[in-house]
């Protein structure tokens, strides 16, 4: 899609979200993660695909960015995101087909694990793990995920349906990250263990039943995922171009306390800059804050509902249907979002993911005004055909689209 070699940036958008979004022609944006329009079905975890192209000149110029580099421990990147589910093969199969992320590793009965069935999907640096409990009476020593609890997983699935249990970060030292986090006020979830082969592993509570998992390992390891997992080769698998996680968003009842907790133990800074005027929350029904690590490659946005607005807050709807706080959406980056979308849309009706309805045609007149110097007319037409949203700020042009909720709740 890019006229010059593409680079990926986190995505930005205005805070207010409407059903028929209009690009903002002037600098009233608060830099934040992008929210999907209010869904017409109960909120559940969704996925956005995003790609950015280099601008020829910065626009707008009034943004102020500040990075205090205040991390309490060294975080390198997202490592994986784990869903707890009732049947890992079924959930993983659907995501693999929908996202073009083939099975890359597994730990289950076939590898001698009688505690949990886990399947790992990969596309580029994107790694989705799906884990389900086996029946009671298994040999606990065979589990490859030491923190796994079959009872907790059953409760989790009953309470939340298919949902994210762990957001895993690759850190320099998992034990050190755990210690620094607990010193900074984190509630421990699983004390550090050495998994062997140089792998460290620990967990702290994040929000609701979601944990932040720390994984450390040597560079250039030949372990396919974590020790205990066996690699799966898929020579014929199709990749749709998805490359990595961009951000993973949590919905919480109260932003201030949740953000203070997470920022307090991670040291992550607020990844947002206010310009001359903030965009009102009257329409969006939410307040949002993005927490970022030093390198700003790990973004953890948080949303809270705002009550008393014209339309019911989609965050409140999520909290009720999901059964409390949880991961609302996952943004995944693509090197070529139009290609990725063609691949994904081709599978929507056959068990893949479906997308939110496209904006009205007049939206793309605005796109020509704000991004006509970066995107060709053919690219803008393709964005319109595929329903891609276009935003621009001082760091580039962002192309993105939102799936409909990918689960029931
Ligand atoms: Fe987002």
Q: How many strands appear in the DSSP assignment?
A: 17
Bound small molecules, by name, code or SMILES, are: fe (ii) ion
Text of the CATH class of the domain at 75-231 = Alpha Beta
Return the string of H and E elements: EEHEEEHEHEEEEEHEEEHEHHHEE
Computed over alpha carbons, the radius of gyration is: 21 Å
Structural class: alpha+beta
Determine the number of helices (DSSP H or I, runs of at least 4 residues).
8
Give the N-terminus to C-terminus distance in angstroms.
34 Å
Structural commentary:
By secondary structure, the protein is of the alpha+beta class. Among the domains are: 75-231, 2,3-Dihydroxybiphenyl 1,2-Dioxygenase, domain 1; 354-408, no CATH class. Helices cover 21% and strands 30% of the residues. The chain has eight helices and 17 strands. The protein has helices spanning 88-99, 150-160, 174-183, 255-266, 314-322, 337-346, 362-371, 377-386, and strands at residues 46-53, 75-84, 103-107, 116-123, 126-133, 163-171, 188-196, 199-207, 210-216, 230-231, 242-251, 269-270, 286-292, 299-305, 326-334, 389-393, 396-402. The strands form two sheets. The chain has a nine-stranded mixed beta sheet. Strand 16 (389-393) and strand 17 form a beta hairpin. The site of fe (ii) ion (FE2) has 7 residues, from strand 11 and strand 15.
Secondary structure layout:
Layout: E1 46-53, E2 75-84, H1 88-99, E3 103-107, E4 116-123, E5 126-133, H2 150-160, E6 163-171, H3 174-183, E7 188-196, E8 199-207, E9 210-216, E10 230-231, E11 242-251, H4 255-266, E12 269-270, E13 286-292, E14 299-305, H5 314-322, E15 326-334, H6 337-346, H7 362-371, H8 377-386, E16 389-393, E17 396-402
Parallel strand pairs: 1-15, 2-5, 6-9, 11-14
Antiparallel strand pairs: 1-17, 2-6, 3-4, 3-10, 4-5, 7-8, 8-9, 11-15, 12-13, 13-14, 16-17
The structure holds fe (ii) ion.
């Amino acid at each position: 899609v890019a006229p010059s070699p593409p680079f990926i940036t986190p995505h930005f958008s205005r805070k207010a979200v409407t059903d028929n979004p209009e690009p903002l022609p002037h600098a009233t944006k608060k830099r934040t993660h992008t929210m999907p329009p209010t869904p017409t079905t109960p909120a559940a975890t969704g996925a956005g695909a995003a790609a950015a192209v280099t601008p020829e000149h910065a626009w707008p110029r009034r943004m102020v960015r500040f990075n205090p580099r205040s991390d309490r421990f060294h975080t390198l990147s997202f490592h994986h995101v784990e869903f707890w589910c009732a049947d890992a093969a079924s959930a993983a199969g659907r995501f693999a087909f929908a996202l073009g992320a083939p099975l890359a590793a597994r730990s289950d009965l076939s590898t001698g694990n009688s505690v949990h069935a886990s399947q790992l999907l990969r596309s580029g640096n994107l790694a989705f793990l799906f884990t389900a409990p086996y029946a009671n009476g298994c040999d606990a020593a065979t589990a490859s995920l030491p923190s796994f609890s079959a009872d907790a997983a059953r409760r989790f699935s009953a309470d939340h349906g298919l949902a994210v249990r762990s957001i895993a970060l690759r850190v320099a030292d998992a034990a050190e990250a755990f210690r620094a986090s607990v010193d900074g006020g984190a509630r421990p979830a699983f004390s550090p263990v050495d998994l062997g082969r140089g792998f460290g592993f620990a967990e702290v509570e994040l929000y609701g039943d979601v944990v932040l998992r720390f994984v450390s390992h040597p560079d250039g390891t030949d372990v396919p995922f974590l020790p205990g997992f066996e690699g799966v080769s898929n020579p014929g698998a199709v990749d749709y171009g998805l490359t990595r996680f961009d951000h993973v968003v949590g919905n919480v009842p109260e932003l201030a306390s949740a953000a203070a907790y997470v920022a307090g133990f991670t040291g992550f800074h607020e990844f947002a800059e206010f310009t001359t005027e903030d965009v009102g929350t009257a329409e969006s029904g939410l307040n949002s804050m993005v927490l970022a690590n030093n390198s700003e490659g790990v973004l953890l946005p948080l949303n809270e509902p705002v009550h008393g607005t014209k339309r019911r807050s989609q965050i409140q709807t999520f909290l009720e249907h999901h059964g409390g706080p949880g991961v609302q959406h996952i943004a995944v980056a693509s090197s070529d979002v139009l290609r990725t979308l063609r691949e994904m849309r081709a599978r929507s009706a056959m068990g893949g993911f479906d997308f939110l309805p496209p904006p009205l045609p007049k939206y793309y007149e605005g796109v020509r005004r704000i991004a006509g110097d970066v995107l060709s007319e053919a690219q803008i037409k393709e964005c319109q055909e595929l329903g891609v949203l276009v935003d621009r700020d001082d760091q580039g042009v962002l192309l993105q689209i939102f799936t409909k909720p990918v689960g029931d709740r």
